[in-house]
Amino acid sequence: MAMVEQWRAIVALAVAVDSPLGRAGGAVDALAAHLPPPEEHARCAVCRDQPWPCGPFDSAAAT
Q: For residue 53, is the peptide bond before it cis, meaning its omega torsion is within 30 degrees of 0?
């Protein structure tokens, strides 16, 4: 499978820093970064040595 076929679709969205989503931006970034790749549902994309959901994902989800 080619690398391009493994990538997820990405959408960029500009939001005001003082908006509710802007204030939660760090948590949203952490959640997105620590999602498992589609073919590896049991492993974090960043914390490869941890099962998913990993600690950083749980922390961001609790925010």
A: yes
